[in-house]
């Protein structure tokens, strides 16, 4: 995979502003997200972190209009995203869900080409920009050689990269990604995270992603949003959010933090007395 092909093929859409106001979302009677207010920093990479079931994916899906709120609203450039047309939302906001199904025998190229639909009319012919956007997205994700393979014949990691290529071809100023490194081994996880950071640095794309790995979240994000029990517990730079106090409160893990020797960002080291005692006794 390479990030050498990230020069925009067309002028990107102007930055879009995303805000969440008093958001309440649930599945039935109990809210999963309750009372969240959030101003997503424009033009940076943000990571949403927190334990399983805390509301990370629910928040992201509501921001992307996949879920409707019980109360509150999501504003995209000051307008309720749930009242905007599907095509308009798709031109501003790209979503990579946690898992997606594709029709049998749909090829990688076919999938990536779907990312161009928001920019084309029903009977509009393919343009040079469309073809270049698809080609660049395949190249950037290392999927060019697999472009003619059916998606359902790919490995889990290859499928993930194919979906990311589709989102890249959409060429939106905002990307929302729900655990984009799922199914990927270490090398491909790092390549995807570098790719997202490069998109942000070179194109100014606002990236918001749900991540589980705190080291990767700190290293590849400018802004962290820590969620506990459906509410934002802390937000700010990685150094401001990833502290022993916050990790204990959000994840229930006692720890110390040390600087990452490469990035200088905090690394969480759990403190487990039984391990220390074992090391001492040996």
Can you give a write-up of this model?
- With 282 residues, the protein is α/β, with parallel strands linked by helices.
- Helix content is 34%, strand content 24%.
- Strands 6-7-8-3-9-10 form a six-stranded mixed sheet, sandwiched between helices.
- Strand 7, helix 6 and strand 8 form a beta-alpha-beta unit.
- The longest helix is centred in the last third of the chain and has 18 residues.
- It is globular and about 60 Å long.
- The protein starts with 17 loop residues before the first strand and ends with a helix.
In short:
The protein has 282 residues and is an alpha/beta fold.
Q: H/E order of the elements?
A: EEEHEEHEHHHEHEHEEHHEEH
Return the structural class. alpha/beta
Overall spatial form: globular
- Count every helix, treating DSSP H or I runs of 4 or more residues as helices: 10
Beta-strand residue fraction? 15-25%
Spatial strand arrangement across the major sheet: 6-7-8-3-9-10
Cα-to-Cα separation, first versus last residue: 45 Å
Oligomer class: single chain
Radius of gyration: 20 Å
What number is the mean pLDDT? 87
């Amino acid at each position: 995979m390479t990030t050498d092909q990230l020069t925009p093929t067309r002028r990107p859409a102007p930055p879009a502003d995303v805000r969440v106001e008093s958001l309440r979302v649930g599945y039935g009677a109990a809210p999963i997200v309750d009372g969240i207010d959030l101003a997503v920093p424009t033009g940076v990479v943000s990571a949403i972190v927190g334990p399983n079931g805390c509301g990370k994916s629910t928040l992201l899906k509501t921001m992307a209009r996949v879920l409707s709120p019980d109360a509150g609203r999501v504003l995209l450039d000051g307008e309720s995203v749930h009242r905007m047309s599907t095509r308009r939302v798709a031109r501003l906001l790209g979503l990579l869900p946690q898992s997606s199904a594709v029709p049998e025998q749909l090829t990688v190229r076919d999938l990536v080409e779907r990312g161009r639909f928001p920019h084309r009319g029903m009977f509009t012919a393919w343009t040079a920009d469309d073809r270049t956007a698809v080609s660049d997205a395949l190249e950037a994700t290392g999927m060019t050689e697999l472009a003619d393979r059916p998606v359902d014949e790919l490995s889990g990691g290859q499928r993930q990269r194919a979906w990311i290529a589709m989102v890249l071809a959409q060429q939106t100023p905002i990307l929302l990604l729900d655990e984009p490194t799922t199914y990927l081994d270490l090398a491909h996880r790092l390549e995807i995270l570098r790719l997202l950071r490069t998109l942000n640095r070179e194109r100014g794309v606002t990236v918001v992603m749900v991540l589980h790995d705190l080291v990767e979240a700190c290293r590849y994000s400018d802004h962290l949003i820590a969620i506990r029990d459906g509410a934002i517990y802390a937000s700010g730079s990685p150094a401001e959010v990833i502290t022993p106090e916050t990790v204990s409160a959000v994840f229930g893990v006692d720890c110390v933090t040390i600087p990452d020797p490469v990035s200088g960002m905090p690394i969480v080291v759990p403190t487990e007395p039984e391990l220390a005692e074992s090391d001492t006794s040996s």
